[in-house]
Write a structure and sequence with these properties.
single chain, Immunoglobulin-like, binds copper (II) ion, 4 helices, five-stranded mixed sheet, 500 residues, mainly beta, binds CU-O-CU linkage, 3 domains
């Protein structure tokens, strides 16, 4: 006997349904939140389907995979090929899909000609698994392997990318999504997509654009590739039944580009952010997803049967050059089937209780981001509290310490500020948490503004990085570390510009 429950408050319905069932059958079958079987036409997502990493381990609690970084030629649209740096030969890398609480083991091999590492962006890993060279592990050199092994404690969409010359390596194609599902999240929408947004630059021969293109000005801007990709493809299409709910898990893996999504004005219902579901849904006509961030959104694309709808990236001003002479970009086409549109149904009520940490006794950490005028060599250095990364001393925190960071962006550029290892909650200027509450690990600080967040360094001692996720900015100096607990901080002044 199967009970199919349509989108709605699935959990509640499921519970009452199973209570009924238990009464009738006098059997106590455990309730599984059962999603609807989906309304989209068969094969609807073939144009964007991500390859999934293959689990070699029969234990359902362990996801064990191989991952190889190597050069490969990939086709981003028919006939348009690029010699990219890839994970497992694909762009993006394979979708690593785990369940909350799983142990994830990744046997990583570097077949590139350069050293690399893998950083698990947004995952609360131990410091040894964080992928930062010299702090977490030595660089993985050509031909070497490294095994990453950690438990995914939080549901949500995360991603993985190198932390060695990351502006170059991410820009060349090294990124992939790590999705941690929570079967009891109560969202109950079966038509679900994981969307990896990125861009890549290459020439007619398929050779990658240099990571130095545009020189110092390119670095200050934050280089963007001319081809905008959704799951490694240029303007792919999905099929849909008009008016049916879909859930999109979106990550922006571009090294600099922001995506301001628009669906011809049709609303996006945001239910989650970097660290899983948020307190309650919010609805908006467009959603902004800055470099490194994630969004969990519900959409109900609708239109005439047989027509199509385009998801676009609108212009967003993240600094000079991001809107001047720029065009809106088409990202994804939604082709409606011939079936009549579904009647409007309310979005499922997705809620999560989040208790903000107490601000009492929190240590105040002022952070000032500046960009002094370029030196005689034309180079510019981003600075954090007056110094670029290579001259910075680590910030400090005691284990268990609560800190409130006040970040003032005194530059003419936006900076998506990313902290490794911990989630934080944004606060308003009166130290009140901003609703809906949602755990963040990457927060955009718009140009000439101040933002605040609260973070509790309550576990996993180690030296953790923070940096702008416009990776050219990070390598231009906008990086730092915080030494949590009783650890010996590393020396940043190793004369090397890189390290990100
Ligand atoms: Cu995705 Cu150090 O970052
Ligand atoms: Cu920045």
């Amino acid at each position: 006997m199967t009970i199919t429950i349509r989108a709605g408050s699935v959990l509640r319905q499921c519970m009452s349904a199973s209570v009924l069932l238990a009464l009738v059958l006098a059997a106590a079958a455990p309730c599984q939140a059962q999603a609807n079987s989906g309304f989209a036409p068969a094969g609807w997502d073939a144009g964007v389907k991500l390859r999934e990493a293959v689990d070699k381990n029969p234990d359902p609690a362990i996801l064990e995979i191989d991952l190889v970084a190597k050069l490969a030629e990939v086709e981003v649209s028919p006939g348009l090929k690029v010699k990219a740096w890839t994970y497992d030969g694909g762009l993006p890398g394979p979708l690593i899909r785990a369940k909350v609480g799983n142990r994830v083991i990744v046997h990583f091999t570097n077949e590139l000609r350069e050293p690399t590492t893998v950083h698990w962006h947004g995952v609360r890993v131990p410091i040894e698994m964080d992928g930062v060279p010299n702090i977490s592990q030595p660089e993985v050199k050509t031909g070497e392997t490294f095994t990453y092994d950690f438990v995914v404690r939080d549901p949500g969409l995360f991603w993985y990318h190198p932390h060695v010359m990351s502006a170059a390596q991410v820009g060349f194609g090294l990124y992939g999504a790590l999705q941690v599902d929570d079967p009891s999240d109560g969202v109950g929408i079966a038509d679900e997509l994981t969307l990896v947004l990125s861009d890549i630059g290459f020439d007619k021969r398929g050779d990658l654009e240099s990571a130095e293109s545009g020189g110092p000005a390119g670095q200050v801007f934050g280089r963007e590739g001319q081809y905008v990709l959704v799951n490694g493809r240029q303007k792919p299409a999905i099929k849909a039944r008009a008016g049916a709910w879909q859930r999109w898990r979106i990550v922006n893996t571009a090294k600099s580009r922001f995506f301001l999504l628009d669906m011809d004005g049709q609303p996006f219902t945001t239910i989650g952010t970097d660290g899983g579901l948020q307190e309650h849904p919010t609805e908006a006509g467009t959603v902004l997803i800055t470099a490194g961030e994630r969004l969990d959104v519900l959409v109900r694309p609708t239109g005439k049967p047989g027509s199509s709808l385009i998801v676009r990236a609108m212009l967003y001003n993240r600094g000079y050059g991001s809107v001047e002479y720029r065009d809106v970009e088409d990202l994804l086409t939604i082709e409606f089937s011939g079936e009549p549109p579904m009647k409007a149904q309310p979005a499922p009520k997705v809620a999560r209780q989040i208790t903000p940490p107490s601000t009492e006794g929190a240590t105040r950490v002022p952070v000032m981001l500046t960009l002094p005028p370029a030196g005689p060599d034309g180079r510019s250095e981003f600075r954090v509290n007056g110094v670029p990364y290579w001259q910075a001393k680590p910030f400090m925190a005691r284990l268990g310490e609560t800190q409130i960071w006040t970040i003032t962006n005194d530059t003419e550029w936006d900076h998506p500020f990313h902290l490794h290892g911990y989630y934080f909650l944004p606060l308003d200027e009166h130290d009140q948490p901003i609703h809906p509450l949602g755990w963040k690990d990457t927060l955009n600080i718009p140009m000439k503004t101040t933002a605040k967040f609260i973070v509790v360094f309550d576990e996993r001692p180690g030296e953790w990085m923070f940096h702008c996720h416009i990776l050219d900015h990070a390598e231009g100096g906008l990086m730092g570390t915080i030494a949590v607990g009783d650890v010996t901080p590393t020396e940043h002044a190793h004369g090397k510009r890189s390290g990100g």
